[in-house]
Design brief:
The protein has 18 helices and no strands. The chain has 345 residues and is an all-alpha fold. The protein has one domain. Helix 9 runs antiparallel to helix 13 and helix 14 runs antiparallel to helix 16. The chain starts with a helix and ends with a helix.
Length: 345
């Protein structure tokens, strides 16, 4: 298939998934800060900007972080490439360039998603009570994924779509675990407390994982929660599950067998999956959860760079003069569009 088409399909899915996960970040933080005093809200909302790697841009344009400023920046700031409204715009633009490839129902659902976000941006009440809007963003993302899986032939284009979505999901799951464990709960005295349990429960809920976790483990324990979201092979938002399925799609694209690899992207993905295959949560905690996730995010960024170089670079060289706005944005972001924690901490 054309690398232009693969590029647009890949980034369309990544942007939709990114919008959903930004909504999840906001939702979990809203639950965590519920009941906090007004004086403490700024310090509790500031970490969300760090998770997207946009703190320099935010500080330059908004100054001291407050709940209202952070919500505006992450939800409806069109100058922020990782805001929900920007992600919806880029996803729609990518889809527009490949309308002959995607089913009409996917295009219609994506248009509805875009118009819903645009409409919500016009109401100040969205910033006052963001939970309903975040829920609508998540549902719109689910409908797009469902429409894509149910109506699109599961060939190369579909596998590029799934590959991009799962890479984005693995990255964001790792970040939300890191925010909870390393930034939002920095005081060792809180570990094991009632507050700790409430926050880990909110974390599971943000990943739609609370019910599945309860069925598998019962009691909320930080170590088990981390194990579930990082190493579980069957939960769809766990990092291990995402990378296993992403590698599966990558092999379907390249035609490689499980014992071989045909490019650097496959090689890096294989190494990352092998690391998860033979790691235990005790190993991760001994090494340091934040350090492990930080390294994971850096390795995932290297995978993204390899994807661009192995599959999309030729298109970029010969079609630079004909780029759409979304395609230009795709190239400028690559997979390093969100910095790793070591760069932002």
């Amino acid at each position: 298939m054309l690398s232009r088409v693969a590029d647009s399909v890949y980034w369309m899915s990544r942007y939709v998934e990114r919008a959903e996960n930004v909504a999840r970040f906001i939702d979990v933080n809203y639950n965590i800060t519920l009941g906090e005093s007004a004086d403490g809200l700024g310090s509790q909302w500031a970490p969300l900007v760090y998770t997207t790697g946009d703190q320099e841009d935010f500080n330059e344009r908004f100054g001291e972080p407050t709940r209202e400023k952070v919500l505006k920046f992450l939800l409806f700031d069109e100058l922020n490439p990782n805001s929900i409204i920007s992600c919806a715009s880029y996803a729609r633009e990518n889809a527009r360039t490949i309308r002959e490839i995607i089913p009409s129902v996917v295009w219609e659902q994506l248009n509805k998603f875009y118009m819903m976000v645009r409409s919500a941006a016009g109401f100040t009440t969205t910033l006052d009570q963001p939970q309903e809007f975040c829920e609508r963003v998540r549902l719109a993302s689910h409908m797009l994924v469902g429409a894509t899986d149910a109506t699109m032939s599961h060939g190369e284009a579909w596998h590029f779509s799934r590959f991009g979505r799962l890479l984005e999901r693995a990255d964001k799951t790792s970040r939300i675990v890191d925010v909870q464990y390393y930034i939002l709960l920095p005081d060792a005295r809180d570990v094991g407390s009632t507050l700790d349990v409430v926050r880990w429960s909110a974390l599971l809920k943000s990943a739609s994982a609370l019910v599945m976790y309860r069925r598998q483990h019962g009691k909320i324990e930080p170590e088990r929660v981390a194990d579930f979201l990082i190493l579980d092979r069957y939960f769809p938002r766990a990092m291990h599950f995402c990378l296993d399925r992403a590698l599966e799609s990558l092999r379907c694209i390249t035609g490689s067998s499980p014992a071989t690899f045909s490019n650097r992207c496959e090689q890096r993905m294989g190494r990352l999956c092998s690391n998860l295959n033979y790691t235990t949560i005790q190993d991760i905690i001994q090494h340091g959860l934040h350090q492990y996730i930080d390294d994971f995010q850096q390795q995932l960024n290297l995978v993204g760079e390899a994807v661009r170089e192995d599959f999309f670079t030729f298109k970029q060289k010969i079609a630079a003069a004909n780029e759409s706005p979304a395609q230009s944005q795709n190239q400028s972001l690559g997979n390093g569009q969100i910095q790793t924690q070591s760069q932002t901490s």
